């Protein structure tokens, strides 16, 4: 960990930044600790389905393509500001590249059918800094087959979608970090 910070320390710092604008979510307990099933569903990307193209505008007005990140694992997160589970998972999702290496992992948060102004206002209020892409008409979300929020697609370093996670995830958990670490070892 950089500067001797632990995952939980980074998570606490991220949640602390959110305290002023949104109610800070409680740290998620693991499914094993609560005896409940997790609040997410992990599945493999269908082998027969090609990875859709991704080209979207970021909040700075620049065009971003999935191909721009070849050589890095991409966590493509579909979210909206009106979605409480989306907001709750964002601090740990944002921290994944810092924990595993910003040269190895990137998070792209694709905002569903909201304006850049709405997304910028949310980021400013929450203290989050992850890269946000815009899908104002919902066409990208539809092309990727997303029907629930949040949904995160795990994409390998060669640009191939490998797994899909529907629902809120504690990305600081060993389970979630393990999904990403496995992709880092595949070439």
UniProtKB/TrEMBL annotation:
Annotated SUPFAM superfamilies: Thioredoxin-like
Signal peptide residue numbers: 1-26
Thioredoxin domain: residues covered: 45-185
PROSITE patterns hit by this protein: TAT, THIOREDOXIN_1, THIOREDOXIN_2
Keywords, comma-separated and alphabetical: Redox-active center, Signal
GO molecular function: antioxidant activity; disulfide oxidoreductase activity
CDD domains the record matches: TlpA_like_family
Protein name: Redoxin domain-containing protein
Organism, as annotated: Hydrogenophaga taeniospiralis CCUG 15921
